Amino acid sequence: MKKSDAIFFLFLSTLWIEPAMAYIDPGSGSAIMSAIIGFFVASGLVIKTYWYKIKSIFTGKRAPTVDDSQP
Mind giving me the DSSP string for 18-70? Predict the structure, then answer.
């Protein structure tokens, strides 16, 4: 097959459009929204958990440990 034939076939195949007949029910939409919200909540918890370690990287101070808070 020549290159021009391949390009012509590709051009013709892009003109052939059929409807997708796809349907997303409301349950799928709420599952997707739950996954997105869960991602942001989990990201927030990770940042909250490691906040002092992340802060110590930028400030240069040592992050407090569990032993530091005990008298």
Answer: --------HHHHHHHHHHHHHHHHHHHHHHHHTHHHHHHHHH-PPPP-HHHH-
